[in-house]
Fold this sequence. Notes:
- By secondary structure, this protein is mainly α.
- It contains three helices and no strands.
- Helices cover 40% and strands 0% of the residues.
- The radius of gyration is 12 Å and the shape is globular.
- The mean pLDDT is 90.
Amino acid sequence: MLLADLIFARLGQVTAEPNARISYSTEIYKDLHISGADFYDFIDWLHTEFGADFSAMDCSRYVPAEGASLWERQFESCTVGQMVAAVQKGAWS
């Protein structure tokens, strides 16, 4: 199974959108509504499964924290393709 397929499958398990079509351009927060602990668990899975280092990622730029008001601010784009690329490079940059 290809790396992207493994990541797509994992996101399909995590998302609150059961019929989501996941592609490289899918936004993790905006399209899949993955945030807070679910997002951190996904990042941890990427690290554990593939050894990718996400310590340089400021998650608060991309997704709200658990229990945060979703209307307070806009978040930067974080796509599935960016995550695949980070895993391929071995780190978020």
